[in-house]
Amino acid sequence: MKSTFLLGGDLAINRLGYGAMRIVGAQLWGMPENPQHSIHVLRRAVELGVNFIDTADQYGPFASEQLIAEALHPYREHLIVATKGGLVRWGPWADINNDASPQHLADALDGSLRRLKLERIDLYQLHRIDPRVRAEISCTFLAEAQRQGKIRHLGLSEVSVEEIKLAQQFFTVVSVQNRYSVLERQWEPVVEYCAEQGIAFIPWFPIGGGMVEMEKGLRQIADRKGVTMHQLALSWLLHHGDHIVPIPGTSSIAHLEENMRAGAIGLSEEDMKELDGLVAEKGADRTT
Question: Mean pLDDT across the chain, nearest whole number?
Fold first, then answer.
């Protein structure tokens, strides 16, 4: 199991990153009650070896990016902050819409650069393909922004293999961020395609949820190995493919430290077969 991944051919990132969605207010709206605590969590993540932090302009909205800059700017060498654009919201997370029009993406990108205090974003990801805007239009804008030097590398989120191939006609796709875990394998074809293409696959919601019987099986294996269920799910992702970069997010320093210990958990071939057997779903589910 490799501990690092070479993103875009030139950025070495540790394969346990940090997702900065949970450091904002309740229902992902506004600033947290105690912003200083979120700052402590971010700084502790870096102390523990995280050099890849994932966020988005709509986490807050804007609050996550602002907290990252307050906690970590000026950024230490080799620390990569990835962000996303292409959504708009007016309230809690359910009140959200796509907007991948060039005008919105231009505003979103410039806003992220300003809030993160960067001249260039190392990894900028299209948060969602907008069904109201032809993907070719969004991709053309992103490719041009990259040529202008505002973006180093480009990625996608919640996409199919076909959508990745379409985007690859406009720019080099270096990352794909889809919902995926040991219990939810609906994006397995995308995971496999990313491995073939040398694309980082960044799973979000890395433990799944709501599948009681499968969670029971995962918990039994975790108890037998003396680890938490969450640690086991993260370790499975790390062992499942050297191109997989989990980004577990939390607002708790204790949970952060627990998550980071997952990188030291060894899984045998027998362990992997047992975990693989918990679910056998394939194909894409576009409802997430």
Answer: 93
Residues in CB range of 228: below 8 A, 6 or more apart: 222, 258
Residue 287 lies in a domain: no
Query: Do 58 and 100 meet the contact criterion of CB atoms below 8 Å apart?
Result: no
Rounded Cα gap, residues 248 and 226, in angstroms = 20
Name the band, by pLDDT with cuts 50, 70 and 90, for residue 284.
very low
Is residue 38 situated within a structural domain? yes
Quickly state the pLDDT bin for 90 (edges 50, 70, 90): confident
Our count of domains for the chain comes to 1
Query: For residue 211, is it within any domain?
Result: yes
Distance CA 15, CA 5 (A): 6
Q: State yes or no: is 75 an active-site residue.
A: no
Residue type, 154: L
Pure H helices in the chain: 35-47, 63-72, 102-116, 135-147, 161-168, 188-197, 212-225, 229-240, 253-260, 269-276
Q: Choose the catalytic residue: 59, 75, 180, 193.
A: 59
pLDDT tens, residue by residue, 78-89: 999 999 999 999
Instruction: Kindly state the tokens that stand for 259.
Output: 């998550």
Domain hosting residue 83, numbered range: 4-276
269: tokens are 């071939």
**CATH code (residue 44):** 3.20.20.100
Residue 282 lies in a domain: no
Report in angstroms the alpha-carbon separations of 24 from 6, 37, 59, 66, 275.
29, 10, 7, 10, 33
Place of tokens 């696959």: 201
How far out from the chain centre does Cα 129 lie? 16
Residue 86 CA, chain-centre distance (Å), reads 15
pTM above 0.90, yes or no: yes
Pairing of strands 96-98, 87-89: antiparallel
